[in-house]
């Protein structure tokens, strides 16, 4: 067995783990990062969705929930985690969410200084309209004609050329995912990153009567067992795998919330077919948002990609698919994301995660409203036909939304994905209501912390990567007993 | 992928993608190799189900049916995750082929790798 010694062992190298590792290593601590997947490099990002999707995503991009309806749950695997394959959209945690966390969960300290620090590291900036592409321009046109609130999204990119394949790995290295930014910083500061290392359990040692503290992590690698001995463990394996690691270690289960309270921001998309050429393979795929209905629990985010991505997503087969593909340059797409009230749970069956999630009636109603609004936007933008991911609704034509409007929509009619699993080891100051406390330390166990989407108490209504990175930054400086440094700019 | 599975896979991709000129026939693309890659990277339960589905299609004489008959059979699977999985992997496997993308008039933006003009 190989034994490594460190001050901190970080499990996972995604949005939470990479940030925590870099901050802690730069703060002078000896850090070892365990990453289950392989090291990812730009060479892995070939710009071909068909070829990269099965290779870069966990389980070939085929992680799905059980429930009504089943959702695809795309997760990254490898250094950088899901940030390697996400769209790069950056939102700060909404002020209303921060206020609720402060009042109800006891979570404080996500200050502007924390967000500034993360955003400066990632080069977060608004997408220039010229780079956003015609898909975004089409969504914007529809929103502006309706007088709806929206804008260009902020993203983590430097020198972006609009390759159009963010979600399949950036082939130019422009996307500033954490494997591009934070892991090199961690290495520079002396951290060690072990890839192909699957954490099996968290090690504890007794510290006085009835008190246990962190002692490290036991892992398996292709070279055999590995043990990292450390007094501090930061678990950042993501909202699906973190609760399973804690459960395998016999931790976090006493209070009940472990593996529960899963929210996913369920999402779907609508396609419009236009007379003009759009070519949604050009430009930043996710670059324009509409937040007019955020207070009703849904937002629109333009999302685009190359033709093979369209073939994967569009609900067609046979002649209808061929005809759509031959017209692909005239297709625009926009996503609909719901801040869900439904909650799921994660459990282990035969060592594999099983995710149960049923979309509740409230959320199904929100989808119905959102789809109607998005269809309205497509008509306003000039669409001749609108294609919906809804069973029992034919392709809409001539501005007529009646087949959708008149539908008694059921959750099982929807074709959904969930991009943002959150909450399965949620933070709460009350040990009966949270797995970790307000400082992200496991209730009752000194030295075991969680810094990923699982600690996020609930849905944000916006893409969560900046929130997760901010929480990891805050945790690192809490452990270092330092203030988060002010931003240079 | 065994020969029976490959024949069923080709018939599946042909039914879903429905190629007609100017699009190349399925046998003139690498769609079946791509579909095999998708199955290989799937989690074990999915892999088992996908391969069983292909064998089931072969047993139902799926490749011997005309395209309309094959689509009708697929429709009978309803909107199950299996049906959508078969549709989606078949669709992306064919429409992600280099020659198909060229025939669609798609070229990759400069610096993005992939299909060049």
What does this structure look like?
The complex is a heterodimer of chains A (489) and B (117). With 489 residues, chain A is an alpha/beta fold. Chain A is built from twelve helices and 23 strands. Chain A folds into two domains: 274 residues, 3-Layer(bba) Sandwich (FAD/NAD(P)-binding domain), CATH 3.50.50.60; 159 residues, Cholesterol Oxidase, domain 2 (2-Layer Sandwich), CATH 3.30.410. The radius of gyration of chain A is 22 Å and the shape is globular. Chain A starts with a strand and ends in a 9-residue tail after the last helix. The relative contact order of chain A is 0.20. The mean pLDDT of chain A is 95. Chain B has 117 residues and is mostly helical. Chain B has one domain. Chain B starts with a helix and ends in a 14-residue tail after the last helix. The model of chain B has no long low-confidence stretch (mean pLDDT 90). The interface between A and B is large, with 48 and 45 residues.
Short synopsis of the structure:
Chain A is an alpha/beta fold. Chain A is built from 12 helices and 23 strands.
- Supply the number of helical segments of chain A: 12
* The number of domains of chain B: 1
β-sheet strand percentage of chain A: 15-25%
- Spans where pLDDT lies below 50 across 5 or more residues of chain B: none
How many domains in all of chain A? 2
Give the beta-strand count of chain A: 23
Shape of chain A: globular
Question: How many strands, what sense, and barrel or not for the largest sheet of chain A?
Answer: 9 strands, mixed
Q: pLDDT average of chain A, as an integer?
A: 95
Taking Cα atoms only, what radius of gyration of chain A do you get, to the nearest Å?
A: 22 Å
| Overall average residue pLDDT of chain B | 90
**Helix share, percent of chain B:** 55-70%
Low-confidence runs of chain A (pLDDT<50, min 5 residues)? Answer: none
CATH superfamily of the largest domain in chain A, please?
FAD/NAD(P)-binding domain
Structural class of chain A: alpha/beta
